Amino acid sequence: MPNRADRPAAQLPRDLVTRGLAAARSAIETEAAAVSALADRLDGVFLDVLTAVAGCEGHLVVTGLGKSGLVGRKIAATLASTGTPATFIHSGDALHGDSGAVTSRDLVLALSASGETAEVCAFARMLAERQIPVIAMTGAEESTLAQLATYTLDTMVLREADPLNLAPTASTTAALVMGDALACALVVLREFTHHDFARFHPSGALGRRLLGGEA
Questions:
Q1: What whole-number distance in Å separates Cα of residue 80 and Cα of residue 186?
Q2: Among 66, 115, 124, 160, which is most exposed with the fewest C-beta within 10 angstroms?
Q3: Which is nearest to 170 in space by CA: 28, 57, 21, 66?
Q4: What pLDDT is recorded for position 8?
Q5: Measuring CA to CA, which residue among 186, 211, 158, 169 is closest to residue 52?
Q6: Beta pairing class for 60-64 and 86-90
Q7: Residue 113 region, left (φ>0) first, then alpha (ψ -120 to 50), else beta?
Q8: pLDDT tens for residues 128-147?
Q9: Is 65 exposed, middle or buried (0-12, 13-18, 19+ CB in 10 A)?
Q10: Which residues form the SIS domain (predicted)?
Q11: Which pLDDT value is given to residue 5?
């Protein structure tokens, strides 16, 4: 028997479509509220993180697992493209040798909404033993990861955006936006310019526009 997900929208019951649209609107409103709440958390800890990252002599190594790992990859890419040397190491891979890529000159930004992701916490523990500072980005300030970290950026959300309150939705959006906030602040601190950005983006439509070429 075909699953409801296999039916064309026109064949779905009207009440089901109505509920689906309501869930979509609710998701947007929930995530917007989660993002808005972050602005009030740009406090002294955020400034300490900015200072630490701006003064880092090595790389900001971003790590995470699952959906947080995917967000971490984007944060690292945004930082690298805006003047902050950054790279991503998967937390699982870190426990199988990739932790050797982290040096005493680096900082590590570790993402975990719960702060209890086993591989992320194990990696953070290894780093703490090597006296390498860890910045936790988590929604649980009393979590294992937060306790292991030197700094904790609070990305707590009241609930996820999906109807089941289970899928990483609002929490991953909050982490992504906090990462963008960090990158944007660092653009100002580093006095990163349009010319600097163009040097990092020589290809594609954006690069051509910045370098004055034809689209």
A1: 11
A2: 66
A3: 28
A4: 62
A5: 186
A6: parallel
A7: alpha
A8: 999 999 999 999 999 999 99
A9: buried
A10: 49-192
A11: 59
The strand ranges marked E within the chain are 60-64, 86-90, 107-111, 134-138, 151-154
Rounded to whole angstroms, the Cα distance separating 127 from 107 reads 10
CATH of domain 43-205: 3.40.50.10490
Answer with the residue of higher pLDDT: 6 or 42. 42
Distance CA 161, CA 8 (A): 25
Q: Please, what is the end-to-end C-alpha distance for the chain in angstroms?
A: 51
Determine the Cα–Cα distance for residues 176 and 101; give it in Å rounded to an integer.
24
Of 182, 145, 146, nearest to 53 (Cα)? 182
Q: Quick: pLDDT tens for 21-63.
A: 999 999 999 999 999 999 999 999 999 999 999 999 999 999 9
Residue in this structure with the two tokens 């190491």, named with its chain if needed: 89
Which residues, including other chains, have CB under 8 Å from residue 105's CB and lie 6 or more apart?
56, 57, 58, 59
- Give the residue-averaged pLDDT of 167-175: 98
- The Cβ of residue 187 has, within 10 Å, a number of other Cβ atoms equal to 17
